[in-house]
Design brief:
The complex is a heterodimer of chains A (220) and B (177). By secondary structure, chain A is of the alpha+beta class. Chain A folds into two domains: 9-54, Orthogonal Bundle (Arc Repressor Mutant, subunit A), CATH 1.10.10; 107-218, Jelly Rolls (Sandwich). Chain A has helices spanning 9-17, 22-34, 36-54, 65-82, 101-105, 209-218, and strands at residues 115-118, 121-126, 133-139, 148-150, 154-160, 163-165, 168-170, 175-178, 187-188, 194-200, 204-206. Chain B folds into two domains: 2-83, RNA polymerase sigma factor, region 2, helix turn helix motif (Rna Polymerase Sigma Factor, Chain: A, Orthogonal Bundle); 110-172, Arc Repressor Mutant, subunit A. Classes of the chains: A alpha+beta (220), B mainly alpha (177).
């Protein structure tokens, strides 16, 4: 997998700092599973966080605090040493969808219940807690997504297949950040359907009247 | 600090744990109070953090991160799930679909950042305005538009200060661009 489009440094920083809400974190974490370079980048940013902890002005703690912690350790002690994380059951073949995304869906690509959007496209809505919309989109090979602009922010992570728009070509693992300034007309590459994880914080705004008319029915 | 944490993991060394506590508890308390917690609530969360340190010490790998970095991730995760009652999904290193890193230690910042003295010097040398945006990103979990509002400066300025700050830390640590 050759990844050429990565999340911006600001987005990785927000993820490393813990300031990113669930849906956006899901897109970053799933990209990280596919991109060792960005994992190293995040590890570096966490190291900066560690350095900032070192230089924080210490706040004096109450006298009894250590003993209170110690009292809790005795109870947890034996359990904590013996309890290992549950072994993950390896599937027969390596899954296509990486964690944490696969866990959110509860299945790999072949076990998903897609919802038909029309024009050969499908979606799968993912439950998150932050009010943004997280979904998998499946665009048929060689077909366009109607040209649209964004009212808010949109993150797109390609999982299979590829798409192109005016900003470039996006293959598996590639990550796109779009905002209200980008009007784009993504086109799925021929060969295989393009499957992406898309996070949006406002409905997309389609340019053509026909697309706007069907949009409420498509739910995107 | 790194060796103390290893001692806690391998021999359940309570004296080492005490030293870790004395160093980190006041810093994590300070970290939490910067999020607006009062002293009592911050101490409750610090206790939780130190209990987690004891329980999860076996997951700590000194080859991958300094103890302070590991403590930062514990405090950050507690803040997200304990205080914000939210989730922060993470990749799973045991997942067969995870693309393995074929270039171990390839990222200079990760390795060099283990050099505590150099990292701290790099952070101390940052111009104040750059350090403030970094601290807000790490300690007050403010997204960049909120940092901009908080400081009364344009979003583009926040982004450029962050970029400059990180670039500077990297070059101080000797990372090639």
């Amino acid at each position: 997998m050759t990844i050429t489009h990565h999340p911006s440094e600001e987005l990785l920083l927000d993820y490393a700092g813990g300031g990113l809400s669930e849906s956006w974190s899901l897109a970053i974490a799933t990209h990280l599973a596919l991109c060792p370079a960005c994992r190293r980048e995040v590890a570096g940013l966490e190291a900066v966080g560690g350095g900032l902890v070192d230089v924080l002005e210490p706040a004096a703690c109450s006298d009894g605090m250590f003993d209170a912690v110690l009292a809790r350790l005795t109870d947890d002690d034996a359990a904590s040493v013996t309890v290992a994380s549950p072994p993950s059951v390896p599937p027969a073949a390596a899954p296509i969808l990486p964690e944490p995304l696969r866990g959110y869906i509860g299945a790999d690509l072949d076990g998903m219940a897609w919802q038909r959007l029309g024009l050969g496209a499908y979606q799968y809505l993912i439950e998150t807690d932050d009010g943004a919309t997280a979904r998998l989109l499946r665009i048929p090979a060689g077909r366009p997504v109607p040209e649209h602009t964004h009212q808010g922010q949109e993150l797109t992570l390609v999982l299979r297949g590829a798409f192109s728009d005016a900003t470039g070509h996006y293959g598996a693992g590639d990550f796109q950040e779009a905002d209200e300034h980008l009007a784009h007309k993504p086109h799925a590459a021929p060969g295989e359907d393009c499957i992406c994880l898309a996070i949006t914080d406002a409905p997309l705004r389609f340019k053509s009247l026909a697309a706007r008319v069907v949009q409420p029915f498509l739910g995107i | 600090m790194d060796q103390l944490l290893v001692a806690v993991a391998t021999t359940r060394d309570r004296a080492a744990f005490r030293e870790l506590f004395d160093y980190f508890a006041p810093r994590i308390k300070s970290f939490l109070m910067r999020q607006g917690l009062d002293a009592q609530a911050a101490e409750d969360v610090v206790q939780e953090a130190m209990v987690r340190v004891w329980q999860k010490a076996h997951q700590y790998d000194p080859a991958k991160a300094r103890a302070s970095t590991w403590m930062f991730t514990i405090a950050r995760n507690l803040r997200v799930d304990f205080l914000r009652k939210s989730k922060r999904p993470e990749p799973n290193v045991d997942d067969p679909a995870l693309v393995p890193d074929t270039q171990p230690g390839g990222f200079a910042l990760t390795a060099q950042a283990q050099d505590a003295a150099r990292l701290q010097a790099a952070l101390a040398d940052l111009p104040n305005e750059q350090r403030v945006v970094l601290e807000l990103s790490f300690f007050e979990e403010k997204p960049h538009p909120e940092i901009a509002e908080h400081l009364g400066i344009p979003l583009g300025t926040v982004k450029s200060r962050i970029r400059l700050a990180l670039k500077r830390v990297r070059s101080e640590l000797g990372e090639d661009e």
